[in-house]
């Protein structure tokens, strides 16, 4: 993560610019953000777990043969979260890690079903994430919002339960803004989830399913047409369908692009083969995200550095990418204006000799 990036003006270190750039993140998973430090703390609390605590062993453990293997490992980390205090610790510490990267706003994808089915009381779960959200904002200056996602492979029972947790007025957390769909796509058709998305949207939640991460562009069309997606998680295979790219561009439907994740899960072979350039060439609103950063050996700053290389961006190009995330976010208008201005002020100050 420390190599230099070349720009047209010569070789320049953009990493320092990225490190200080105020950012918003729209696609990052709660459990998937558990750093080795957090995993070690949780594993020490629950020593019967099979998850290694030693950072080197953890790096090996987080090397995936394919997407199915990734989900299997992911669920072993989910198994480390057993009490409301574990939920609070994870959420609060994830926000601390975000603040270190100058993340000002993040929509964190949480799978409440995975926790409640493991016996965590639903009321205590909501209180834990909300308590951490408020503390993170007050202490780290990071504004957190939630996306509750259906773990698709777990089927309609999980969908029903996720919908209930997201829309029951006695449970629904204040920070919840959107409804998602995660897990494997192969063998998990999107249209079956239409009734759940319809009800979530009717309850005021925004639709942000994963689609086109491990299957073709038809899944992205299904997410748009059946689930009324306002943004697409990954959407990688959209590059194979020019009509779809044109549709995404025309309707300002953002793609939540997570380059390193796509390599780690073997959805894309190499970074140089990543279709991000095709997205920007087609005028699609591209946002940069880290997905499950420690599991993929990355962080948001590194994803911006990867994007700078793949898209040949300078400082202003990077600031524009950061502003794309603000535009595609579910922040309120005042918050959007504030963060956009903060990005512009930072870039101008950086570029003023
Ligand atoms: O929790 C369980 O016991 C369980 C049982 C059956 C199936 C599931 C899931 O499908 C969980 C999938 C889980 O994966 C999360 N996630 C994290 N990163 C990604 C990604 O890049 N693409 C798709 N899903 C991802 C997702 O949020 C789900 O929670 C669970
Ligand atoms: Zn994801």
UniProtKB/TrEMBL annotation:
It comes from the Bacteria. Keywords: Hydrolase, Metal-binding, Zinc. The keyword Metal-binding applies. GO terms for molecular function: hydrolase activity. Pfam families: A_deaminase. Residues 22-345 form the Adenosine deaminase domain. Its EC number is 3.5.4.4. Its cofactor is Zn(2+). SUPFAM superfamilies: Metallo-dependent hydrolases. It is an enzyme of class 3 (hydrolase). Belongs to the metallo-dependent hydrolases superfamily. Adenosine and AMP deaminases family. NCBIfam families: aden_deam, PRK09358.3-1. PANTHER family: ADENINE DEAMINASE. This is Adenosine deaminase. It comes from Streptomyces mirabilis.
